[in-house]
User: Fold these one by one.
Assistant:
Number 1:
Amino acid sequence: MADEKDPRFVPIKVEDGFVIMPDRWKVDFLASMGELSRFFIEMKENARLMGMKCPRCGSVYCWPRSWCHDCYVDTEWVEMSGKGKVTVFGQVEVSLNDIKKDVPFIQGGVHLEGARYVLVSCIREIAFEDLYTGMPVRAEFLPPEERTGRIRDFYFVPDE
Ligand SMILES: [Zn+2]
């Protein structure tokens, strides 16, 4: 028997000549983090941010990359200081899934010390109006019992 609330059983609509088809996706899946698994394990178990360094050119990737995209050689794990500077930021007003409850929140790109690219995460403990590009920040971690091994185990806070 069809679920009356399931959008897949609602008749189509036609607006301006286009069919609008209600639908629903619910997909449970397992995603392997593969060679980048240590990044998530270190966050959860040791409250550490890890990057990966190219042994040839010295580039440090955090987000980690298992190979250098300039030299095409395997990279090696290095611990990041967790300190960096804000390069870009915005206030998230609408979100999905498990972070919907947290809106509004500030998200920003942080150029970590020694890293080649920015790492995006939430920025807390500061008002949006007081944040600026170039602001020094540092990574903070949730208490051990709240860490799940996911990217939201850490966030940035002002470091000045
Ligand atoms: Zn390299």
Note: The chain has one domain: 7-158.
Number 2:
Amino acid sequence: MVANQCQHCGLFFKYEEMDTYTPFGCSSYDPPEPLDPINICKKCSDKLKHDFLNRFRNEEYKYGDWQKSKAERDAAKECGLVWVNGAQNVEYNGHRAFFEYVPKKVFNRSAG
Ligand SMILES: [Zn+2]
């Protein structure tokens, strides 16, 4: 897969205009190898951001990519969310947050 082809719509764009993300998961388990980055165009990145915003506004904070796209980071920022990978010991909704977003004020209270 060439880096300047959008893997969502299949069209070609300038490399500088691409957004990229890497989902959680493995492409191989023996030995384990992370999935390859997925490159997407500006238009598909905007759509992805829109999808993230919809989820975040419905308080679905559980999903995020391993290597985050600009779309995901921008959406989280707009919604005032912080990604917690479990190392920060943040309590949220009665459990320890683990690979999920939490509202910034929750994060600051727990981690501060
Ligand atoms: Zn595209």
Note: The radius of gyration is 16 Å.
